[in-house]
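Q: Got a minute? One more chain.
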Amino acid sequence: MLPPYPHFLEGSQSLLCAHVSSLYDTARIQEVHVPTLQRDLPIADPSERAELFKEHASYATYYNPKEQPSLLLRLVNNNYTIQLSSISGHIQPISFSFESPIIPNPIIVPDQYSEAHVIVCTESGSVYRLVFSVPSYWEGPRTNAWCHEHVIKAAARESIKAIHVVDPGLLLIALKDGGILRLQARRHNSQAPFDDWTESIMYSSTGFQLPSLSLFGSRHEGSTDIIAFASASSDVFTEVAFTLSRDRQLRVWREKCIASMQVPASFAAARRGSQIKAGNLLPGVFRSLIKVLPGPNGVEDEEDPDADRRVLVFVPSLTEQAGGGFFVLYRLSERYSNGTRQLEYLSSQDCSSRSTGSELRDFAVIGNHLWCLWDTHGQAMVEYVSLEPETEEVAQWYSAIAPSEPDYTPDYFDELLVQNGAVTEVFLDAILRPGVFSRFTLETALKQYRDSISSIPGQHPPALTTSYPTLGEHIAGIVGCTVDLAIDPQSGEQLWDQYWSALKRDWEGFVARCKEVERSGRWPLAIGVGELEQPVVLERERVGVVARDDTSLQAFKVFTQGAGSGTSNSALALFDIAKGLQESLDGADRQLLESHLTSVVRETIAFSWNEVGADISRRLLLSQVSPPVRGYVTARLNSLGSVNRAVVDALYVILDVEAEIKGEAMEDEEGSPTISRANGQVNGWAGPNTASGWQKAQWPRAWTAGYVSATIQARYHLALSLLILTLFVIEELPDQLVTEPPILGDVFQAFQVLSVLNHLAERSADHPDAKAFTAGDTDEILTKFNGMRVSSLGPSLSPQAHVVSYSLLHTILPPPRHDRDIYSQAHSFLRSNGLLIPSSQRPLLAAEVRLVESLRVDGHLHIAREIAGWLPLAPGVAYVLARTWLDGGRPDEAVPLFEQVAISFGDDGLLESEDADALEDVLPLDEYYLPPYYNHVADLFAECSLDVYVAQFTKLAIDSSPEEVSEKLWETLLTSYIALGLYEDAYMALISMPHQSLQQRFISRLVTAMCDKGEIDRLTRWNFVGFQQDVENVLAFKARNADPIGWPNYANVLYAWYTFRGDYRSAGQAMFRQARRLSEIICKPSEYIDFATETARCYLAAINCLSLVDPKSAWVALPASHEAGRASLRKPRRPRPQLPDEVFGAEGDDIDVVELADIREEYMLVLSRLALAHRYPQHDIANLVIGPEDIVSRFVQEGAFDDALSNARSLGVSMTALFESLTVRCINLSRAGATLSEDSAPWLATTRVQSWGGTLGQRAWKYLHESLERNDGPATDYEYHKTVLKTILEEDRSARLPTWLVQFFEQNHPEHLIQVYFKYDLLADALRQSIDLVKETQKKSRGTAKTRRMPFDTAAATWLPYNLFDEILGAAASSKAKDVSTLAAELKKTIDLWLTSARNLSRDIRARP
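A: Always. Here it is, folded:
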């Protein structure tokens, strides 16, 4: 740390201001509309009173209660709206709009019951009381009486001039006739609200008020008008108030005027104690001209608390004498018996000569100092003086002025354009420079510019309708959009010079608009007292504080004022010489030299600083310095004695930072103070109220940023001047400088650091290249609700956080501390970043790396990369630069830099010592070792979901580790490989890792991932040595529980796995289970065909697989609870008792066995249902439980006999009902004859049937005949022929049976035919058929006997239904029909013949040898 340097300017202080609109968006503030009881008011239209810009305040006051958040009240919107915001706490701003203009001095006053009251009086004569709870104010809970309105009755609304609040229950209103309207209200307890105001009027004399007389006895209108009010502070009990009128009468009021005195008209008269009643009237504008001070001992008399109270009065100068006026201090005497008092003169103080021509806006007494706020031609000037009430000695006035800002004149921009020829870039950087123009100024100027373009007739540029992400881009896109590149009509040459000139004029016009709006916004309004007893300056659009100057700011003020020539201080003298040398250069040459020096210090050079400096001095400096100037500078340098010592002293001034305050540095867990961390969280700044709103407040941070910016710019200009002078010395007086170590190198390095800091100080956070800083995250819907005008103050809803655009420094500063002033906090930041420590006293590049890291953490990636590019690519720089590329979404640029950092680790994997200091500050590792570094980089890429680089660096971490690697690294590597689809790498890593538990866990992930990506072929071909059972378990589990119709189809994967390994039984079982699951799905009718097709495919695959195995093993076991599903209506077969336990286990009784035949039946059922769905899509087959019989029946009902026969055969369903229906159809067609068309029997419309010819009936009987031949036989005991026979006779007993049917029964089952005839009383047909049967039997017997081939043991096998014959003959005997009797006789005869023949045949057979 540099030794402290003495102060150069006694009492030197600076005024640091921040813009309101740059810290929070005033357009998005929650607005509450305050209603009124008055009904005859005109509609409010603030635009009719547009004396100021909408967001420029006409009045402001600063409310600073003890131990509570301070408030700022601003009167905006042309006096229609009061805006409340917190200075020291994180309370969202709010605004209250009124129906009538507000008298321009609303007041915030505290109450003894933890409340804050805002008293507002409008021009319409309404007095409002807004009540807020402390400390949450409007964000906290509220009562129904939060707003109260009182309409004044005792005075006309036009007579109201100003108000003054003595305490929450006492309000004084100045009237235009010199009287005072006294409003008083009381409250009975802390829970009760105030009563309504009671009104009374006071005058300075009894009776009615007479017109005032002038000081010389003549009448003057308004001479008694009150122009100033004052009372003791609101935390002191008093009912006494002071007023000053235009005739210089200082009056003391209680319930009446109790004292009066005329203040003198001049400072000389005040010192003489003269009571000359001469002088002009004071201006009639209400101003802050009097202040009430406490007594000298601070102890009040309980009986007379107002005794010995002091009142300080300012008397403005109305003559041409030096100074803006003077102050007079009076003492209030004790109360006399009649209740009156006296004002006693104590002392007076004249104002400084600097205030001549200025107007006092406000003043305040802080401690024993009097602070004055002057309006100097629209600019604020603050002066202060020591106030000694008991002495008349003339005290020294000191001033506090704002840091110098460049004057944006055309010449200034011409100099900048010499250094950088880009017009838009130069002007944009200038107007976005922090603190120069507010956001409201830029938006207003831009609106004016747009309106001026829009007012021009014709087509407007498209830039006017384009949306822009930032204000800076909006300005860059709009300004100059009407300037076009012209072409010379004669030569066709593009007129670039004219284009650049026109563009420059356009930008100059926009800057002029900005300057006009900004000048209006900087009008001073009031001065208050801050939390740390520092002055707070209020302007129309800015709020500022006064802070003491550090050594560099003092030296810079001496430097700019040219006051260093006569000083004995070598540093100040050297700066003065440097100033003279610098001013001797032409503006363009000076800019060129500065630009070149900046470029040199931002590059890596291969020569010594002395060589570089000598070259620059010869080329760019000495050639531009005239011989007289050389001689003058040389002479002054020789007069210093030791130039080298003066340069060292000057460096101390430039790099001077206040020593660390005790208890300020707070250590983190590692014991080292930190200044900026990720997500804006800062360690080492915790104060007594870490969690308070102070740390969240933007105002203290903005003021600190302003101070840091001011001191950095001052140091930069001093360093630049010192460097230029040192370059002069190294050529002209080389013996005056020490070369070992070279002092020039220290100067260059100081300029290098300050050029970086100055670059940051000049950058706005709203710059297109910088990332905007947001104060917080909120919901857009809340913003919309908060923008609504509501009649009542609803719950506090945070408006959308405003994009802070104050400065880039503002975003990277740590949170402020409540117990540190701006000076201390600024120097704490400068000290903590370590940049202002000489390079020889700090680790190489450590401070620079921390700075770049803080920029990266706060999101300013472009600037972080820019500054990192100016530094040598050391490991720390490379690491932070890699992080910026990674954060910016460009990992390809980050990877080589991360790899370069890894090179800095030695062969043993440890970090080299010369690189450790800079890298350890930004690399958060517990152990600086190569494997942990690779692991850390992999984690960084993992946060960005960049698996390719996660895998790369995790693999490096594993390969570089000499010890066994943890499961976490292997898990990261496998996860990355799987995410990237590098399944072979994942497979190799899986089988090579030493952690068995991790292997088992990742088998499932690998298999699942490969299935999801369709890598089924590779999965089935890999061996998975030692893990095959695990893979099968995973696939089986997925196949049982995953969605059977989802992707991937795990049943198919499991089927492929088994078939590839020849395990067909397991493959068949997997597909059968899948078929069962598919059959249980309830689907839409439109989807059924797809589901059924897939189900059939699964059944077929299962059948094929099980057909390849041993028939004894061709079965599938299912849990007994497993439903058969809608695909099968058959009951599953239970396992056979003889099945061994080693097959089914001990739980064999809970298992159902489905054999191959069962699977085939289920398969055929699915096919049948599918065919039915294809043929009749109008039927909801999907949601019906249809068995095999139902399917056949459905086809029969639809007349689809081909399909019905086919499905009945395949499903094994009885065709009895089918042939019954078919027979009926044939009978009906025969009966109809030729009257039916072909369409009436679509089942006969096939090509094969139509080729038969004949009528529909004939073809139908033939169709029936062929169907019986195909489907009926001995296996069915000719059941279907019997059904046809029965059906025909049931339909019509008299019908003629088809010949082929009779022949069939005669050949195959004649007995049945006889029985049917007999059953249906067809005795004649039964007799005939019986006769034929006997004859045919006899005939066959004769043939057998002739051939002698009948074996002995079957000779009596011929059988006839004799019982049936007896029944028929019995029935015939009772019949009266002649033919029946005849046939019965013939049957008897035929039977007798057969019996005789049979006996003979038997005898012959027995006689056979």
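A: The chain has 46 helices and 33 strands.
Q: Perfect, thanks.
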